Structures are given as C-alpha cells and as structure tokens.
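Hey, I'm writing a tutorial for new members on how sequence and structure tokens pair up, and I'd like a real worked example in the thread rather than a made-up one. If someone can provide the structure for the chain below, I'll link this post from the tutorial.
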Amino acid sequence: MYQIRYLNKISPVGTSRFNDNYHCGEDVNNPDAIMVRSASMHEMELPKNLLAIARAGAGVNNIPIDKCSEQGIVVFNTPGANANAVKELVLAGLFLTSRKVVPAIEWAKTLKGKGDEVGKLVEKGKSAFVGPEIAGKTLGVIGLGAIGILVANAAKSLGMEVYGYDPYLSVEAAWGLSRSVHHARTLDEIFAVSDYVTVHVPLTPDTKYMINAESIAKMKDGVRVLNFARGELVNSADILAALASGKVSAYATDFPNDDVIGVEGVIAIPHLGASTPESEDNCASMAASELIDYLENGNIRNSVNLPSISMPRDCSCARICIIHRNVPNTISRLSGALAEKGINIENMQSKSKKDYAYTILDVTGELQDSTAANIEKLPEIIKVRIIK
C-alpha cells in the first residue's frame, strides 16, 4: 500500500482518485509521496523513502528542488490546471487599470447618507474616474505558456491588438495561439508598441526584476503594467517611481507587498489568481494522476526536475526505474550490470534534463531482492525502484 501525505487541504476531486491501494491523509508518516499546495517544504526533513512530491499548482518556489534532485525525489507541478482562473483575473486587471473602477467604488461609498443629493454628486464627481476602453489598444504578452496564450487569445477576442513574446515557445503551445497574435522578436518590441504589458514567465535569476527602470523607460508614456505571475518579476521601487512620474498610469499585481499597498495607481489583489474551486479541483486531480502514474508505472509527466517519460506496461516484464546523473556511459554500465545477473532488457527509455536523467527498463529474468541495491552501487546512480 502506498502512503500519501497531504501538507495542505487538497480538493476531494483529486483525493478521490486514490483507490484502496493508497493510505492518504495529513498525519501519514514515512510517506511515499506528498501532495502540497502552498506549505513551505524548505525546512522540512524529507523522508528517506520519499519518491515524489506533487505541487497542486504551477509554481514550486515552496519546494527545495535541488535537494529533491540530489535525493532522487521527483517533483511534479500542474501546469495549465489553473490557467483559466488566472486568465480571468488578468482580464479583470485590464479593466480595473483602465476604468479606475476600484477608486470609483471607494469614492461612491463616501456618498452614503447624502440622500437625494447622491444622484447629482455622482454626475458631478464621475469625471475624476474616466478611463479608456481596451478595444483598439495594444497588449504585449511576455511569456506564452498556458496562461499567456489564453490571455493573448482572449484579449484579441475583446478587440485588442496583441503582441506576444516567448523565445521558448513550444510547437504544442504555438498550435493554441491565435494566428492574429503578432510575433514580437524582442522584449524591446513589446515595450515599444504596447499600451498594456502583462508578464507570464517563471521567476528565475534571469527574469527577476525584468520590469525595472530600464525596461519601463522603453515603454510608452502612460503604459499600464500587469503582473499576475510572480511578485519579484517587477521591481517595486522602479514601478512606484514610474507611477509617480506618470510614465506608468497603473499597475495591477496579484502579489502585494508593503511598498505597493495603498499607493495611488496600484491595484493590489491578494493572490487570487488560482483561488477558484474549479482551479483547485483541476490542480488536485492532475497532481493525483501524476503521482498514481509514477508510483504504479514509473511514468513521469510534468516534472520540474526530471524529464518526461511515459512507456506502456508489459505485464510479463518487471520494470526498473532509475534516477541517475546525466553522465556518459551510464546506460551501458547499467546494461552490463543487469546482463551479468542474467536479466534481459526487453524495452527501454532514457531521457535527461540538465544534470539529471531518468531511465525506465522493462526486463525479464529473475530479479533478486538485492538487485536495486546492487545497481545503486554504481557511482552515477541516485535512486532505483523496481515495480513488478
């Protein structure tokens, strides 16, 4: 029986996918796998027998990826499961930064108690909240992953001109992008043409503070900036300076911090991007499916630290799953070690991802209890698992 530990409350739509072969709960000891949403795992001691962690969401900043890789723990996420929820909030951000809806609502509250004067006061005061329509304006989308593509397509259907930039756009993703979205070849092109700029890239050392004084200077005067991806993609001090000077008309973010809260021109939303029941259900269901396929079949889909591999099962074979370092001659050494024990490889897949690799072997022959331990003696091997 597999042991699954929940570090957060997980939607029952996902947990219901685990059958009687699984013991699941928040109090499970020595888990084979962990399901997590927002709980931080950086200070957590990872159990020696832990095989996998599934993050019910896209971001994995709360998981110690390097430590997991070194210990042979597969880390899954659920890209695209919450994409529609985030897309809808980004669209709300477009409207909120344009029409000054939030300050207008707050002003309207001050009219409480004015009685018959309210109507006249509304007509007199509404001019302070005038803002442009988005139709006919240009939106620059930085990052065309699951969310960026949905945002680009939706904005186009709302009558905007849309430019997209993503040097790593996959062929599969490109199929989902509207043909009428313009392909920007550089970030500078996005900055130069856009009335609105929205960022949808992961937070890495290369993307941290990508929206800063230098990039803002290349944008149109009065540009509106939206950040529903990660807080540190935007330099708070630089965006506030640009708001104060009028270079930026408005800034919408799903990642408030003490610097931006309460500042005129800032729409600070308390990280609601994926906070919908549909999103939580989708993420939990995808995370559970990923764990089940890995634990029962050794297949990997949507891992952030190991390559994707999926190989059909042959009931007549045992399956050996091997996480190892990406170094030359590993496969030949594995083959030799198995051949010496009279074990024949019937089918094999092996792929690498940066410094690490993953190999699945379907084998016939008599596997001993010591087979996995013997393979792990090879210096490049990190973890071996046998599924019969």
